[in-house]
Amino acid sequence: MLMKKSFQHNKAIDLSIKKDIPKDVLAFIDFVTQKDFSLTLIGGSVRDYILNGQFGLDFDFELQYLNEIDSQSWQTKVDELYKEIQSSFPYHSEVVSYKVLKCTYKTLDIEIAPARKEKFKEGEVGHKNFDVEFIAFDDNDEKQKLLRRDFTINAIGIEFRKNEILFKDYLNGVNDLENSNLQICSDTFYKDPVRFLRAIRFKEKFYFKFSSELEEQFQKMNLSEVSAHYFKYEASKIGFSNFFKEFDLYTKKYRLEIPKPLAGLSYESSYGYELNEFVFSLFDTIAQEKQENILNLGRFLGIQAKVMKRLISVRELINNEKFIENIKSENNFFYYKEDKFILDETSEYLNQMFSIYKSEQALFEKLSSEDSRISNVTKIFKRFDKVEIEKTVKFCRKYEVEKSSMGVIALLFDLGLLSE
Length: 420
Prior knowledge:
- The strands form 4 sheets. The chain has a 7-stranded mixed sheet.
- It has 420 residues and is an alpha+beta fold.
- The protein is globular.
- It has helices spanning 23-33, 44-52, 71-88, 142-146, 173-178, 194-206, 212-218, 228-238, 240-253, 260-263, 275-288, 291-301, 305-312, 314-318, 321-328, 348-359, 361-370, 372-383, 386-398, 405-414, and strands at residues 37-42, 58-65, 92-96, 100-105, 108-114, 116-120, 130-134, 157-160, 165-168, 181-182, 209-210, 334-337, 340-343.
- The chain is built from 20 helices and 13 strands.
């Protein structure tokens, strides 16, 4: 992988790097380092700077003291520093778990955390199943504090001191970045199941390959208790469709346990994405899915039940055999012309009903109560109107669309058709 910036481990970085840092962040760095603290910028910001030559807007710092200090005095020093930061800068800030100070200012997000080691509790797995030991100053054991991180590409640091800046790469993350290799920081990787989701995200975002050590860790993982929050957060970074496609692939490959709301859903390979074929697969797939699975997925993702029920209501349309035959026949009533999604003129009764529905919904409701065919189509028109279907079709013509309930739901989520 091509990189815009090149540095050597434990070597000084030219101070001209400061011109690449936003002025508000630089003021923050100078304020802290003048008080005999060191700040190590670490994680995605450093990784992206090496790749693109730009820092972005998220800055995560590890905090240490430059002089030897006992644990109690260190806690006091940190508390005093946070109070000074909060009184000196116009940030919205709060102290959260593990003494992490989170600050937001304009478009910037700044996070400062005392350096720490983490030790997973015996026999437990989870995102926060560990004990913490804070590291007050550089005790010549810097590598240990990095073992709590997920991937070596996220363990590269730029350390700011009062009069110098140092590059830190104890785990050879730059080498892995250059070789597009997603490598773990420690053999306890498997104990945090959220890391599996992050692995998928980084693989898709950067086109990385999984290291053999990472794949060994996958085989030990149990994802059954991962919350929807982490699924939505990681999937939103690369798109729900791409994310669930890879998630399904690798959970099946390594035979992993996954959350029950996802276990009942399929994500099969694409079988074609012609317009009519896609529309049919959308209806057909949801219709064949168990209602319980659809509702469970909605609850898991935090989607209102009424939104999921509009997907389930497609079943009633599928019950109309004539409707299905129309879709399957050569004279499909859905077709695409001049970038518009149109109903085929040969299906006169559908065209008429759609027009009535748009202009005279009260009359349409009355007709629905008298004619089951109209009632079935009314339900689908009410829940997926023409604008939504047009948007979906344009998307499916541009990208590969998967024939499966998970794939369809992920696609609709990406398109904004499923609101939380």
